[in-house]
Amino acid sequence: MRYASELTLALGALSFSEFAPWALGFINTLSYRILISQQIYCLSHVINHFFCDLTALLKLSCSDTSAIEHLTFAEGVLCSFLPFFLIVASYVCIICSIMKIPSIEGRRKAFSTCSSHLTYSPAQDKLYAVFYTTFIPITNPIIYSLRNRDVKAAFRKLICAVTWFSSKNT
């Protein structure tokens, strides 16, 4: 009986965690659409940008854009500082938990285990950027072309030839 009530509670939390971002995204988009649709655009109607960016639209507007700027600032504060404070709070909790360990050796071991998760390296960031900007786009055509029967047959021939050649040389 207890399992069923816990499962119901977990499903309710899951539903909220799925619904809340959708609802907040809808409200956010709707508020921007309403505020932007009330603007008067007196300059050129050609946006000098690669895509329809908010700042490019605000530059074309002749009316007061302070409401949109305030909304953007408030959103930036919420989207930046709230996660920052949650991350700092979690680090403080981790450090407090480690400091409660009675032995110095235990604290050292816990810090050495957690330190790799708490540190940030720009070199890692560069590696990840290279990976998702070059490696993935390079492998996409290979992956999608392997769906073709002719490409699969040619790939099998290549694999057989390589294995035959390597077994012949040994």
Automatic annotation (TrEMBL):
It comes from Xenopus laevis (African clawed frog). Belongs to the G-protein coupled receptor 1 family. InterPro entries: Olfact_rcpt (IPR000725). GO terms for cellular component: plasma membrane. This is G-protein coupled receptors family 1 profile domain-containing protein. Keywords: Cell membrane, G-protein coupled receptor, Membrane, Receptor, Sensory transduction, Transducer, Transmembrane, Transmembrane helix. It holds the Pfam family 7tm_4. Gene3D superfamilies: Rhodopsin 7-helix transmembrane proteins. It is a multi-pass membrane protein. PANTHER family: OLFACTORY RECEPTOR. Its main location: membrane. One of its GO terms (molecular function) is olfactory receptor activity. The lineage of its organism: Eukaryota, Metazoa, Chordata, Craniata, Vertebrata. It is found in: Cell membrane. The chain crosses the membrane at residues 81-99.
